Amino acid sequence: MARILVADDQATMRQIIGEMLREKGHTVTVVEDGQAAYESAQANDFDLIVADVNMPRLDGLEFLKKIKAAKPGLKVIFVTGMLEETIRIGSAELGLDGLIMKPFEKGAAVELIEKILAR
Amino acid sequence: MKKLVIGLILIGLCCVPLAAAENETAPKTGSAAPGLTLPTLDGKTVSLQDFRGRKKVVLTFFASWSKTCQDELRTLAELRADRQTNCEVLAVSFDNKTRDLKNFLARSPLPFPVLNDRKLSSIDAFQVLIIPTTFCIGRDGVIEQIFVDYDDNVKKAVAEWLGS
C-alpha cells in the first residue's frame, strides 16, 4: 500500500480524498496548504501527492515546481475545479503526473490514482 | 515536454472557477435549497422551486459515463414509480457533451426530468464535489438529507425518506 499526502485547503476535499484512499488501504497524511505540503514531502517518503491547485501560502504550480526539483521521482496529481490553459501547459512542463477535475466520481478518481501509483 | 497523463474526469478542458468550490455557503441539511432552473433536452425549462409546497424532490447530480450514477438513476426510477403522486426526481447532468447525454437517455430512458447542465452552472450553488451527489428536499424547500456517492445504504436511506 502507498503513502499518500493530500494537500487541500478545503476540509471537505481533504476528508473525501483521505477517506477514499484509506478505504483502499493507503496511508494518508493531510495538510492544508502548499507550503505545508512541500515541507511534509521533504521530510517524509511519500509515494504520491494529491494536491489542490489553488492553495494558500504556496499555490499548486509553485508547489509542483519546487517538489519536482527536489524530488523528481515523486508523483503528483492535481485535483482542481479550474483548468486554464496556462495551468494545463505549465503543469505538463513541470511534470505533473495526473489531473482530476471536480466534480469527480470516487471510483474513477481512485482508479486513476492507483494506475499512476502502479507505474 | 514530459508526458502528461491526464485523468480528465467528467468535464474535459472547460474552465470552472475554483472559488466556487471553496464557498463557505455550501447547502446544508436544514437550510433552504438554492434555486435551480435548467433546460431539458427537449427544450423545456424545469425549476426546482416550482415543486415547493407541492412535492418532495430528490435532486441528483450525475454524469452519464459514471457507472455509480447509472446505478443510482435506475434506483431512483424504481422508487419514483411507486410514489409519483407525492415526489419528483430531478436529475442534473454534468455531461460535457449533450450528445453523450442523449445517447445515454436513448439507451436508458428515465421517467423523470433530466436537466442538461453541461456548463456546470449549478455546481456553485450546490457545491457538488463528487458525482453522484443527491439532495432530498422537503415540500417546504428545505434540504433534509444530502448523500455524497451512492451505495446500498444511500438507496435504503432515500427509500425511507420518500416513505416518511
Question: Could you provide a short overview of the structure?
Answer:
The complex is a heterodimer of chains A (119) and B (164). Chain A has 119 residues and is of the alpha/beta class. Chain A is built from 5 helices and 5 strands.
Give your account of this protein's structure.
- The complex is a heterodimer of chains A (119) and B (164).
- With 119 residues, chain A is of the alpha/beta class.
- Chain A has a single domain (3-118), classed as 3-Layer(aba) Sandwich (Rossmann fold).
- In chain A, 46% of the residues lie in helices and 21% in strands.
- Chain A has helices spanning 11-22, 34-43, 60-70, 85-93, 106-118, and strands at residues 3-7, 27-31, 48-52, 75-80, 98-101.
- Chain A has a five-stranded parallel sheet with strand order 2-1-3-4-5.
- Chain A is globular.
- Chain B has 164 residues and is α/β, with parallel strands linked by helices.
- Chain B has a domain at 56-163: 3-Layer(aba) Sandwich (Glutaredoxin), CATH 3.40.30.10.
- In chain B, 28% of the residues lie in helices and 21% in strands.
- Chain B has helices at 18-21, 67-82, 98-107, 123-126, 152-163; strands at residues 37-39, 45-47, 56-62, 87-93, 114-116, 133-137, 143-148.
- The relative contact order of chain B is 0.22.
- Chains A and B meet through helix 1, helix 4, strand 5 and helix 5 of A and helix 1 and helix 2 of B.
Helical element count of chain A?
5
Please give the largest β-sheet of chain B: 5 strands, mixed
Q: How many beta strands in the DSSP annotation of chain B?
A: 7
Greatest interface by residues involved: A-B, 36 and 38 residues
| Secondary-structure element string of chain B | HEEEHEHEHEEH
Residues in β-strands, percent of chain A: 15-25%
Whole-number tally of structural domains of chain A: 1
Low-confidence stretches of chain B: 1-23
Strands in their spatial order, largest beta sheet of chain B: 5-4-3-6-7
How do the strands of the widest beta sheet of chain A line up side by side?
A: 2-1-3-4-5
CATH topology of the domain at 56-163 in chain B: Glutaredoxin
Relative helix content of chain B: 25-40%
**What pattern of helices and strands is seen along the backbone of chain A?**
EHEHEHEHEH
